[in-house]
Amino acid sequence: MLTNADIVELTRFRRHLHQHPEVSGEEAWTAAEVVRALEAMGAPQILTGLGGHGVAAVWQGAEAGPTVMFRSELDALPIEELTGNPWASQIPGKGHQCGHDGHTTILLGLGRLLSRRPPARGRAVLMFQPAEENGAGAAAVLDDPAFAEIQPDWAFSLHNFPGLDYGNMAIKAGPANCASRGLRVVLTGHTSHASTPEHALSPALSLARLIPAVMAEGPGGDLGDSFRLVTVTHARMGEPAFGITPGRAELWMTLRTVHDRDMADLLARVSALVDAEAQSTGLTVDYSHHDIFHACTNDPDATQRLLDAAEAVGVAREDGGFPMRGSEDFGLFGSRAGAKSAMFRLGSGYKTPNLHNPDYDFPDDIIEPGVRVFDRVARDLLGG
């Protein structure tokens, strides 16, 4: 288990990362700090540059066995931190308000234990993944030819979660995180002087009609199999001027479904509404797609491994609500890479600010229980 000195050093490291957040695709400094920490603990094999700035550390057992991967995220968010902590972000407009600094530190804690007691069989892989927040990182790692060297049989991850007691676990087999997709719609006509709006082809009324129409296609509700949610996140029209009738508008929205199979249908329904509106008014329409996340599903066997580990090391379980509306790209390690994969929620307190809030900070007290669960999973599957 981790010593008191380990906890002190890992806490210091977590706060060090917290002060220097890097957003998706820009995690060069964070990756270098992770490599430095892995080298200091004597990680026998370190792969870098996976899918961008991804890092993987590998411990090889003497006997044949499965490859077991534990994954964390490197990236932060484009959010100004307002915690006022001494270790608050030093980078204006960027912050670790999702706790990825804590997840990364948990994996480094696991690495310390693996270095002291290497696995007896198979391989343990610590995957420090880039670009989770924009949904691009897991796919980029999977597409990297070097990933073939560490193709996992099992994959495990965690996410800290406000609303659960400190250090408690919540997990359930089956749907864990919704699929989501950002859709940007551009409607284009032409401008005129504001005194002669009849000479313009304005998207104003189309934008006004489309906002409630697309929201009606995804009303939300219970997170059952038929769940669909369309959230309008941004709208813009014309120029900030009083003398011009607008000729262009943008409508941004996020689409969510529990299952990947339903996303295509929701996208088709929303697109049909936009196309019909454009056709009836003479506007042209262009689409672009952003932040695409596939649904995340917990494998029953991997889920049971986490439940057994938590019980063995004294980590309490809470029910928690499943699936989450929020999205995660971790599920690709199961659906695309074929690993038995599962993610659990690690409680960060009932009164903790919500994730992505400017005053959120990962609680250091939950580093140790996170390491404890992962270490037990590794020992159960790999010995040592």
Automatic annotation (TrEMBL):
Alphabetized GO MF terms: hydrolase activity; metal ion binding
SUPFAM superfamilies noted in UniProt: Bacterial exopeptidase dimerisation domain, Zn-dependent exopeptidases
Cofactor(s) named in the record: Mn(2+)
Peptidase M20 dimerisation domain boundaries: 181-279
Pfam family, one: Peptidase_M20
Binding site residues for Mn(2+): 98, 100, 133, 159, 356
Cofactor note: The Mn(2+) ion enhances activity.
Keywords annotated in UniProt: Hydrolase, Manganese, Metal-binding
Entry-linked PANTHER family: CLAN MH, FAMILY M20, PEPTIDASE T-LIKE METALLOPEPTIDASE, PEPTIDASE M20 FAMILY MEMBER
Protein name, UniProt field: Amidohydrolase
Organism: Gemmobacter megaterium
Highest classification ranks of the organism: Bacteria, Pseudomonadati, Pseudomonadota, Alphaproteobacteria, Rhodobacterales
